[in-house]
Amino acid sequence: MKKLSFIIAPFMALSLCMGATAQAADYPAKPITLMTAFNAGGGSDVSHRLIEKYARGVISQPIVVTYKPGAGGEVGWTWLISARPDGYTVGGVDLPHIVLQPLLRAEGQPGYKTEQLNPLCNLVFDPDVIMVRQDSPFKTLEELIAYAKANPGKLKVGTVGKFTGDHLFLMQIEKLTGTQFTQVPYPGGGKAAPALLSGEVDCYFGSTSNFLRMEGARGLAIATKERYDLCPDVPTFAEQGYTLESAKYRGIATPPKFPAEAQKYLEAKLAELCANPEYQEAVRGAGLTPYYTDGKEFGEIIKREKEKAVNVLKTYGFIK
To answer: Which residues form the signal peptide (predicted)?
Structure first.
């Protein structure tokens, strides 16, 4: 019997290897789920819907968007790291959100770690902007800052959640201008934008993509080095005496232990998709700037954004 087992074992191993190879060759064999960590209607959702649309004909199976909103994205990203690592579940990730939340989470509280989200690729760049209603009494950044200084905490600012990119943007503005605002967090841009237009909040410190899809809003200052080509009429902070650059990077990550072959396949196919001029034009039409990077470079962006976030959080005493 021992001799027989020695004979059978190599054939079993060969059979398993052939099965694994066939499985990799057949990938993907079913639709791929793309998790969105915010409500429908915001910049993340728009970005993912474009991937869903333009993946047809590039990826052999459909991309299916699903929503897991809550806590500024933390609910979705915590769900993602627990997803079955079979190659069929990926998730949209936003920077700096994914570095801020683990840094500020109370010790012992469950949740994802930034390092558990494997960078697959970055998709778009989305700078931050201060928005008010068209009928707002504040016509310039100078007027808004002057009122905020004279009335600490009186102005209500909409954001897409505590300890998100919007919140970091708000903290940087307060630090630079010596002002104090009252933050009103919402579960996504699809909720924050209507809150501004209805008068529920006085201003919205958020993504340019949301601003460009709104009617009835005015941009007071955009946090780019130079004027942004998608809204060239909005002056930069630098033009108005403040050195501030702030933006979101929206990409895709995979859960821990995601199959290497699936990771490689999706990275290559998404690079092909993102090079499509029609896709790029649709991205710009949605108020976003196409900014594809592969997983390695996206990982470097994540490291850089974490360093930046740590500096701001130390300034505010959130971390030591």
So the answer is: 1-24
DSSP state of 151: S
Residue 209 has pLDDT above 90, yes or no: yes
In the chain, DSSP finds a helix count (H) and a strand count (E) of 11, 10
- pLDDT digit string, tens, across residues 168-178: 999 999 999 99
Contacts of 267 by beta carbon, 8 Å cutoff, 6+ apart: 120, 121, 294, 295
Tell whether omega for the bond before 10 is within 30 degrees of 0, i.e. cis.
Answer: no
**Per-residue CA distances from 60 to 28, 177, 224, 273 (Å):** 7, 51, 38, 12
Q: Contact, 314 vs 320, CB < 8 A?
A: yes
- The pLDDT tens digits of the residues spanning 253-293 come to 999 999 999 999 999 999 999 999 999 999 999 999 999 99
* CB contact at 8 A, 205 and 173: yes
Q: How many CA atoms lie within 13 A of 49 on its CB side?
A: 14
pLDDT tens by residue, 183-199: 999 988 889 999 999 99
Tell me which residue of 295, 262, 302 sits closest to 120, measured CA to CA. 295
Nearest CA among 265, 245, 268 for reference residue 125 = 245
What is the C-alpha to C-alpha distance for residues 186 and 102, in angstroms, rounded to an integer? 19
Which of 142, 118, 124 has the alpha carbon at shortest distance from 251? 124
CB 203 within 8 A of CB 177: no
- pLDDT tens per residue, range 123-156: 999 999 999 999 999 999 999 999 999 999 999 9
Separation between Cα atoms, residue 318 and residue 320, nearest integer Å = 7
Rounded Cα distance between 169 and 58, Å, is: 36
